[in-house]
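I'd like us to work through together how a protein chain folds, taking it slowly. To get us started, please write out a protein record for me. Go ahead whenever you are ready, and we will take it from there:
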Amino acid sequence: MTKLTSAESLITVAIVEDDAAVRSSLRQILRTASDVRCVAEYSNAEDAIRNWPQSPPQVAILDINLPGMSGVECVRRLVEKSPGTQFMMLTVYDHNDAIFDSLAAGAHGYLVKPARAVELMTAVRDVHSGGAPMTSNIARRVVQAFKRPVANGPRAGMETLSEREAEALDLLAQGYLYKEIAVRMGVSYHTIHSHVRHIYEKLHVRSRAQAVAMYHRRA
């Protein structure tokens, strides 16, 4: 395996999966990529929360059906503990409650097992770059959910966004990655992260998927 010259170019990943065989398979897949490094593995949510790395991973892959605390609740806790981490669910569950509970908790992507190695690695890189990777049937359900009426009004919180934040959210809704948005807006990658953080705070959401859902529900 080719070694990278700079540790900063590595995508660091943590795995939270109770099935030892699946966890081993995920680890082996991650090891095949020169730009990815698995830095932590946990067999349950409680262990992950208790022993989360002091230098948080950039991406975390979690199962939903964990023993004890669920993967959804684990994400909700870890989002507070590790706001810079991009959380991606990898699970056998593809029903609406599991999908939207995960996204509401702060997950940024959702893949259904079994995920092929190429699909998994593409998703890891995508979520790290600001994307929201989902298998096609999951994405379709999310799009359908955008059409549902919102009790608090379609523009709840939208009016608080600055002009530049609104522009960034518009580009997020079109599917652009953070780096692409930075180029289109003529600002730095760091500035886009700052805009997105402010968008999350003002809209009271925890993930790109939630922010985009609110955008599509606007008047």
